[in-house]
Amino acid sequence: MAPLTPYTFIQCPCSDPSTLARSGDAAPSDVDDDGRTFDPRAPRANFSLYPLEYLLYCEDCHQIRCPRCVAEEIVTYYCPNCLFEVPSSNLKSEGNRCTRSCFQCPICIGPLSVTSLESQPDSSLLAAPDHTAAPQAGPYILTCSYCNWSSTEVGIRFDKPNSIHAQLAKLRNGGEVRLTAKERKERRKEALQSGPLGAPAASEGENEDLDIETQFANLKTFYQTQLADSSPGGNGLSLGDLGFASPNSLTRIMSIYTGGTLHDKKAKSRVGTMREALDSDEGLQIADLDEMDAIKMLHEEGCDGTLSTEQIRNQPPHLGEVHLHGRSRFTSELRPIPYLLRTKRSKRCPICRHIISKPEPKMQSTRFRIRLVAGSYIPSITVRPLNVPGGTPTAPPDTLRPLQPAQFLLTFKNPIFETVRVTLATPATTPGRFASKVTVLCPQFHIDANTDVWDEALKDNDRDRRRRKGDDGPSQSSSSASAQPQGQGGVHQAEAGKIWERGRNWVSIVVEVIPSSLRLDLLPLTAKLVGGGAEAKVDVSPLKEDEDLLEIPMFVRIEWEVDGGGDEVGAAPSRDREAKEKRELAYWCVLGLGRVGQA
Amino acid sequence: MSMPMGSATPLPHRSVTNIKSPTGGGSGPSTPMRSLGSNFGSPSSLRAEEDLIVIEFGTRKLQVGFAGDSAPRGVIWFSPEQQRRVGDFRIWQTDYQNDWRKRSYGNQWGRDHELWQSDVRGLELGLVGDKIERALREAFTKYLLIDSRPRRLVCVLPSDLPIPMLSVTLDTLFNRFQPPTVALLSPPVALAVGAGIRSAFIIDLGWSETVVTSIYEYREVHTSRSIRGGRMLTEETHKFLAKHLAVAQGEPDCKSNENEHELSFEECEEIASRLVWCKPSRYTAAAQPDDGLATVQEQDESDIRGQPSAPSTAIPVPLKSAASPITLELSCDQLAEPCENTFFDLELLPSSFDDHELPLHMLVYRSLLQLPLDVRATCMSRIIFTGGCASVLGLRRRIFDEVSHLARERGWDPVQGKAVEQLRTNPLLKKRGTRQAGSGPTWVESQPGSGEEQDGVWHDAANTTPEVDPVEEQLRRGSDKRPRVYGEMRAVESLGAWSGASMISYLKAPSIATVDRDIWLQQGAAGASRPSDIDPKTQRQSLGAGGLIRGTASGGAWTLGVWGAA
Fold this sequence. Notes:
The complex is a heterodimer of chains A (about 600) and B (about 575).
Chain A: E1 7-11, H1 27-33, E2 49-50, E3 56-58, E4 63-65, E5 71-78, E6 85-86, H2 88-94, E7 103-104, E8 111-116, H3 120-124, H4 128-133, E9 140-144, H5 164-169, H6 181-194, H7 198-206, H8 212-230, H9 247-257, H10 261-270, E10 285-286, H11 292-301, H12 309-314, E11 337-338, E12 342-348, E13 355-359, E14 368-371, E15 380-387, E16 406-413, E17 420-425, E18 437-440, E19 444-447, H13 453-458, H14 460-467, E20 501-502, E21 506-514, H15 523-531, E22 549-563, E23 580-595
Antiparallel strand pairs in A: 1-2, 1-23, 3-4, 5-6, 5-12, 7-8, 7-11, 8-9, 12-13, 13-14, 15-16, 16-21, 17-19, 17-22, 18-21, 20-21, 22-23
Chain B: H1 14-19, H2 44-47, E1 52-57, E2 61-66, E3 74-77, H3 100-104, H4 125-144, E4 152-156, H5 163-177, E5 181-185, H6 187-195, E6 200-205, E7 210-216, E8 219-226, H7 230-248, H8 265-274, H9 301-306, E9 314-319, E10 326-331, H10 332-335, H11 337-343, H12 360-369, H13 373-380, E11 383-386, H14 395-410, H15 418-425, H16 430-436, H17 456-463, H18 470-478, E12 491-493, H19 497-506, E13 513-516, H20 517-523, H21 536-544
Parallel strand pairs in B: 1-4, 4-5, 6-11, 11-12
Antiparallel strand pairs in B: 1-2, 2-3, 5-13, 6-7, 7-8, 9-10
Helix pairs in contact in B: 4-5, 6-19, 7-8, 7-11, 12-14
């Protein structure tokens, strides 16, 4: 296990209130004593927790916006490989993948490059000028520079080095040329014209193997003709039928008012249900159940000849192939993967419709025109171990010892230009099977505004004075601004109700935790102590993933005052200055402190 | 949303008038009410027509794409990795794969690869909603590349989905994606459409169970199921590998705990999909052309017989998730074992199976047997294999052959056993026996001489000219002169449920169960009427009259169709 660095996740307030409740069997007892304790271990919690960096902030609604609660608009579509911008009209017709020459390796998903396949004698000669002079020689292949896969392995070569996508669409694995629908039609026409042997041609058509695309197209035309034939009013079901302007509607209305007599003849001749497709021209495919060849191949090639699930899932749906029950299986059936296109999106607040993030439309630029990240509006929380009793020497250094109090330093940094008041709340014990005790030593404090750095530097004395200002600063006057107190161990004691340290726009407080023991045999005892409820059964199943992680749910409530402006004035003018408006923001967050050692 | 809500006064007589549509020709006074108010709907709803998104829900994966496409644009698989927090990158840690043991504790082995289980009791519905939401969001941004404007959705949902699950699915869709409407389609019907046929016998070799559904004229008429599906195959593969692993490690008698897993789910699933295959049936080549019932596609006999014995070479099977990495050498025949045990279990007596665990060939046979005669004749020649396990090599053919064999052996006679056999062979009862063993479509012609029977009704019925059945007439008229295939076993390839649904939506055939967003948010699942209370004619008529602007959901009653049947 990699060492765990303490982390913070924030729950976006947009999540359902039901997420806050405890889940599963423990729910009833917990709801009783504290109805709204957020459980970071509930499986649903994973869907609403975000690191601060992922969150945005709507300035007008004064609310955090997570990826789930923003409305998105697409700025541009582009290929991540060639950075070519794709017009949105192409997207509909040509699909969601790059249609130029950008491909991923089907084995390792590395980028494939087009290289020319020189004839053997040329490559044996070391005549460099030859190579430079005629780089266009020979057929071309796609090669992966990472795993050395090349398209020759599936028997695909290209005539031209450009527009590989179009060439590939016409090639089957093994190099066989695939007919497009048009060509197929033409060929059939030719066959019909060339000889009077219409019957053999038709019978041939019945058993023809269609690839998915063709089958779909055939079926589509079949259904359309059938619908046109069978729908009673002779309605073609086209968009034009809706308006009153269309002749179809007119006749229909006429037929309605004339008692249907106008239509009767026509209807009678046409009435009927759709019939089913009867041959491959109409899209019917008799299944070929004989898979002996594939089985034989499987036995010959073994595990190495087959694809891993990952590789299969990465394969794009290949429409040019006969139905393979959704997937290819052998390495010889691999196709190069055209790059999926990507989008640049601008994001709006779903409530006030203000844009909260808007990237530069240019592909090469990674900058944003507008970007209201939550990190510049809500205080960031960093966690640092302060006084953690060392674990056993064998355990990794970040391990917490069970049943031994450990102290952590939470540093809240205020990004806004107002002084904010912070109120913290945590449940006394963490939710879950292994309940650790949590004490926030100073749950209420204020953080000074994020003023200009130079102000601070120039008013050095002032700062000193403020740090010691009365109630909450630690009483160590000699420490300079940069000195970290944890080195002094016993000298600097964390006290309840007092903050640990204060800076220009930050405040550190101490959280003390007593990690619970992870021993399953003690669980029945502790569960009774902690839960207090009448739980009939105690879950003594072995440790689940991440259950040894000590995570504290913490409810953060921040309040600050801004100069009231516009219509919102008067909402809360109760504070000392008259034009001030009170704002508050409250959310749950989760602090991951470390792993509890198994002892 | 798209509908003029003001004009939504439910007209009690509307349904009646719609039954008497002008199609009937001389069907009395024709009705002006037929052009539903929907024609006056605001044209804005046309704009929403642009992108219709089709979503197929499966237990393991979600397929998403636009209506009119031939294949889904994106497939999202559910996995535990999908359920991690945003910004949790532990999957990239080097030793992540070795940690599977810890992950699989508690949540049963492999269950976190599923979207839902049909047992709703222990299931957290909110979590299902979250999973759907995250998967759909990924599909929309990664594969469909669409923004978050509301779009109409078409969902292909198993029709046996429990109502709580259906409710949570629709809740998620309506609350998180704001579609104006969601239409529900059932996968078997979509499969039939995707194959171009009106009746089908669908063998869905799915993940949690195998479902056999008979579709007759686009209606589900019969369905039965067995737990022998993909999950069982993976579990059998695990059992099989664990057994060989123990042998290879020299502790063959070490009985491992049932719940302990030696190998990770991912690895077993991978081996099941890569290497496990299905042996051909013992009866494959024994097709008798004169039988009329089981004309299998002709097959070279020697070819098949020679096949399984030839490759006796061992296939190396690398196992990484075992306690220590090891490569097992397994022969081809052994690798067919899990499949054999999962789907057929031929060692056990047929009577030893419970109803929920019938081997597949028996399931299919019984299911066919329970169909009415005509339906059976139609369905048996339109068998569609689908589902994840259909890609197990040789399995489709095996089921097909086993069923053909059963049909040949027993005929379509539900009664079997020694007594019946005696009865049949008893020369004294021979006269009556002829009728009893009647099979398949030849039934009607087989009774020309039975006029002398004591049964007077029979006598009459055989000789009178059959009454003209208008429905039958209609059915016949649409067809051309080419003969349909009846009464013989035949398998048909379908494009898949997703593609079928895409086709249906593209052709703008309205779904019976179309849920309107506003109404759903107001009423929820409880507001749905029974499907029988809704006049399906109203909806089907709107295919012709006002099909594009749906006229039904704005009315008072709406239904969840088969999905809402409690």
